[in-house]
């Protein structure tokens, strides 16, 4: 389990998720976007959700435990960004929730989260990280 280092705090994630978060965050930072990065905490670490305000001017680092880079699932990266598209945020979700994710179009060329899409709901048992 690696970690994201942001404002001198460590936020622990499984390496595979962390690789995908790094790409999703880099995409937003390249566009000079600031945004909330959010995830559900595991019940073991108190449950609830965490929101971090991510800004391209802040120092950000990633520490991976695995020596090999995971094969990228670009659909997972896209889904994490599109789930929060109305708020321009990024929501860290487990990879298994990506199956069947199909954003809708609002008629103005913008993708929106479909209402009632159960695969987009992140429950307490669907934690993405463990915060230390």
Task: Chart the SSEs and their pairings.
Layout (H helix, E strand, L loop, with lengths): L1 E5 L2 E5 L1 H16 L4 E6 L8 E6 L5 E4 L10 H10 L6 E2 L12 E2 L5 E2 L16 E3 L1
Parallel strand pairs: 3-6
Antiparallel strand pairs: 1-2, 1-5, 2-9, 3-4, 7-8
InterPro entries: DUF7882
Protein name: DUF7882 domain-containing protein
Pfam families: DUF7882
Task: Briefly characterize the structure.
With 132 residues, the chain is an alpha+beta fold.
Structural class based on helices, strands and sheet pairing: alpha+beta
| Integer-rounded radius of gyration | 14 Å
* Spatial separation of the terminal alpha carbons: 11 Å
pLDDT averaged residue by residue? 77
Give the tally of structural domains.
1
Number of helices: 2
- Uncertain regions spanning at least 5 consecutive residues: 110-127
User: How much of the polypeptide forms β-strand, as a percent range?
Assistant: 25-35%
Strand-and-helix sequence, N→C? EEHEEEHEEEE
Helix content: 10-25%
> Within the largest sheet, what's the order of strands?
5-1-2-9
Characterize the main sheet: 4 strands, antiparallel
Q: Identify the overall geometry.
A: globular
